[in-house]
Each structure stands twice: as structure tokens, then as C-alpha cells.
Amino acid sequence: DAMVIQNPRYQVTQFGKPVTLSCSQTLNHNVMYWYQQKSSQAPKLLFHYYDKDFNNEADTPDNFQSRRPNTSFCFLDIRSPGLGDAAMYLCATSREKAGATYNEQFFGPGTRLTVL
Amino acid sequence: AQKVTQAQTEISVVEKEDVTLDCVYETRDTTYYLFWYKQPPSGELVFLIRRNSFDEQNEISGRYSWNFQKSTSSFNFTITASQVVDSAVYFCALSRGESNYQLIWGAGTKLIIKP
Known about the structure:
The complex is a heterodimer of chains A (about 120) and B (about 120). Chain A is an all-beta fold and about 120 residues long. Chain A has no helices and eleven strands. Chain A is globular, with a radius of gyration of 14 Å. Chain B has no helices and twelve strands. Chain B has strands at about 5, 10-15, 20, 25, 35-40, 45-50, 60, 65-70, 75-80, 90-95, 100-105, 110-115. The chains are: A mainly beta (about 120), B mainly beta (about 120).
């Protein structure tokens, strides 16, 4: 089945120690998103790639970076995790065409990040 | 400013009851899209429905139905004959604007179905 895969499902890191979360998709969607979701809150968009074009949200801290080496993979790098970065990180994909078709986003299972 | 309001923070019903989750939105766009997503305890967000602003027909999918009313800027979600497996957090979302693929999310409604 076509899907969005996130690894690892659970990640524990130390305060200030860089961590990378990965996302892959078999849907061949051109748009990939990274969301941060804290307990009892709605997902918060960090950034997204439209094809190779990177789009950062204005309030995403510089501590968060992303890479998309090809259509299938996207990485979230947290350069110096703080206690406040502990959250669920969700990857999503969608197929979009020019003109804002707003197709549905397909989500991965998420990576729960713990910062010690 | 665009906004999605889900006023019901938590709803608890007994299995087999019908339940309606409210969603009210604000937008200045003439063309926009509305979505509902389900997030079960496992954490994965599951797409339920997408509706564009020009299509006000109600939608029914099994026990799920959606009522879109532009006059009241509402896009409500009803589950008929609820089941324990329907227990989840449900999010309503609105497209942010033209040529922009982000969504404005409501705060979510936690639905608890008791056996």
C-alpha cells in the first residue's frame, strides 16, 4: 500500500544534541510537510517543500532545518533541541498542481520526540 | 483573518448515540476548501473529507455525514450510531488562501465514546 513512513516512531535525545527525523513516501506526491504537534493542540506547520522549493513558516525557529534530497524522502533536523521541542513530529504529503488545488494531506504515524 | 473554531473541546457520549461536532470558519476568500481529519490515540491523522466552497451538498459516508452551510460559515460533522472505535480527536481545517498549501486548523474536539 502507498503510504507515508516515519522513522523512528520514538526518539529520545539529550538537551542540545542534534537529532534528525526522517520521512519517506511511496505516494509520489510533490509536496511534503513537517508539522509539530504538542499535547492537546492542533498540528503546527513548520515548513513544506513544493517539489524542491523550500517554504519556511515565519515563526519556525532557526533551530529547525529540513532537507529533501529527492521526491521520496524528507528530513527534519533539530540542531540544538531544547526541552520545549519535545513533541510529536508529523510528516505529511499531498499532490498539488499550480493554482492551489488543495488536495488532502496524507500523514505518517509521527515521531514522538523526548528531550532529556 | 482566517480562523477555524471548534467550540467543543470534549464530547462524551454512550455508544450508539448520534453525535455532532461543530466547526465554524472565517475567511475572506471566495474559493476555499474545508477538511475534517481524525486523530485516534495512535497519533496518525486520518483524512476524512474535503469540501470546496462551491459545493454545498451534504455528504454521507456510511455512519458519517457532513453539513456544509455557507450562510452560517459552518461545516459540521455528524456520526450516527457511534462506536467505541470513533473515539478520537477530530480536527476541522480551512485552506489558508490561494496559491498557498497550508491549512488553518481548529483546536480539535476530543470525542469519547463509552461502551
